[in-house]
Amino acid sequence: MNSNQESSALATDRKVVQFLLRAGLGLSVVLMFVGLVVSLSSGETTPTPVEMKSLFANGLTLGNHLMGAGVLLLGLTPVLRVLMLVYLWYREKDWKFAIIALIVFTTLMVSISLGGG
Amino acid sequence: MHFSAWVVIALIVSGSFAGLLGALVGIGGGLIVVPVLVLGFGVDIKIAIASSLVAVVASSTAAGSVYVGKGLANMRLGMTLEIATTLGGISGGLLAVLIPAKVISGLFAALMVVTSTLIVRSKELPKRAPPSSGENANSVDGQETVGQLSGSYYDPYHKELIHYQAERLALGSAVSFVAGIMSGLLGVGGGFIKVPAMTLGMKVPMKVAAATSNFMIGVTAASSLFVYFARGLIHPMIAAPIAIGISIGAIYGTSVSQKVSPGVLKKIMGVLMIFTAIEFFLKTMGVTFGI
Predict the structure, then answer these.
(1) CB atoms within 10 A of CB B272
(2) C-alpha dihedral over B58, B257, B159, B196, to 10 degrees?
(3) H-helix or E-strand containing A69?
(4) Cross-chain Cβ contact A82/B79 below 8 Å
C-alpha cells in the first residue's frame, strides 16, 4: 500500500467508524427518549429492573421495552464498531490488527453470552 | 422510589452536567453520575453503577466519534489495549456481583479522593494557540500508521507535526486491565489511569492519549454493561434519562472544549469532589447526622 492509498484507507476508516458511532448513539437515544415519554404518559412512576433476555420475551411494559432496547443498542454500538474494524483492517490487509480486533470482538461476545445465559 | 416527570427532568439535567464537565475537566461521567444518583436520588449503589455504565458508554461514543473524525484517537493503539480492558471489564462486572455493596462504596469513595486530589494538583497545560482563519471544525488533526502502533498529529501550539511511536505495550496493557476492572466494578471510565500510563509509560502525546482513552471507554464499559444487564441491575427509568443527558452534555462539551480553559473549574471540581467523597462514604456506611 503506497502512502496515498494508506491515507485514503485511513480516511475511510475514520468516516465509517464515526458514522457508525453517531448512528448507534442517535438511534439509542431516540429509543430511550420515546420509551421514557411512553412510560411517564402511561403513569409508570417506579423504576423497575429489566434483564437483557426479557427484551426478547413478553411481559415488559412498552416504555421499559423501548428504553431497554435503547440501552441494548447503545451497548452494541461499540461492539459493532469493533466488528467493523475487523472488516476494514482485513480489507486493508492489515492482518495483525484485524486479528487483534477479532480477539476484542470475541471477548465482547463472551460478555454478551453471559447476559443471555 | 417514586419517579415523577420532574425527577426524570432532574436526571436529564444532572446527566448533561456530568457530560459537560467530563468533556471540559476530564473527570469522566461515572465519577459524577454515581454520587449524584446515590446522594441526590437515593439510588442503590449497584444500580447507580449499572446506570453509570450506560451513561459512560453514551458519553464515550459521543466524544469518541468526534476524536475519531479528527484523527486524534489512534484506533489501532486503542484496539490493542482493549484486549486488556475488556477482560478487565468483564472481571470487574463479575466481581461487583460478589462484593458487598458497602465495600464497593468504600472503594468508590477512595477512588473519588484519589482522582480529585490528582485533579487539584494537576498542572495547567499550555494554552492552545488561537485557531487560524483556515482552520475549521471538520479538519483532520492527526493520523495513525497502518500495521503499527504509531502515528502523527498536528500540534497547533507549536505549529508542527508531531510523530510518535507507542512503547512498552506490556505496561500499557497491564494498566489497561486494571482500568477495565475499575470500570466494571465502579462504573467509571478509567481514563485517569490509562492516560498517564499512555503518556508517561508508552510515550504517547497527551492529546492522542486522551482521545484514544475516550475512544476505548465505550468498548470497556460495554463489556461490563452486559454483565450488569444480565443480572437485572439496569433500571431503564434511571439509566435512560442520565444517558440522554450525558450525550447532550458530552457533544456540547467536546465541541467547546477547544475554546475553554478549565483551570479554575478543575480546582473547584476537585475540592467539591473531596467533600462529596466524604459525604458519600458516610452515607453509604450508614452514618447519618440527624437533625
Answers:
(1) 11
(2) -60
(3) helix A62-91
(4) yes
Cβ(A83)–Cβ(B66) under 8 Å? no
Provide the shortest C-alpha distance from residue A58 to chain B (in Å): 16
Q: pLDDT tens digit string along B39-64?
A: 899 999 999 999 999 999 999 999 88
End-to-end CA distance of chain B: 23
Cβ atoms of B46 and B96 closer than 8 Å: yes
Residue-wise DSSP of A36-59: HHHHHHTT--S-----GGGGGSS-
Give the Cα separation of B91 and B177 in Å (integer): 9
Q: Over the stretch B106-156, which tens digit does the pLDDT of each residue have?
A: 899 888 888 888 777 766 554 444 444 444 444 667 888 888 888 888 877
Q: Which residue has the cell 460495554?
A: B222
The complex's ipTM works out to: 0.94
**Within 10 A of B46 (CB to CB), how many other CB atoms are there?**
18
pTM of the predicted structure, to 2 decimals: 0.90
Cα distance from B83 to chain A (closest Cα, Å)? 5
Contact A36 B8 (CB under 8 A): yes
DSSP B149: S
d(CA B110, CA B115): 9
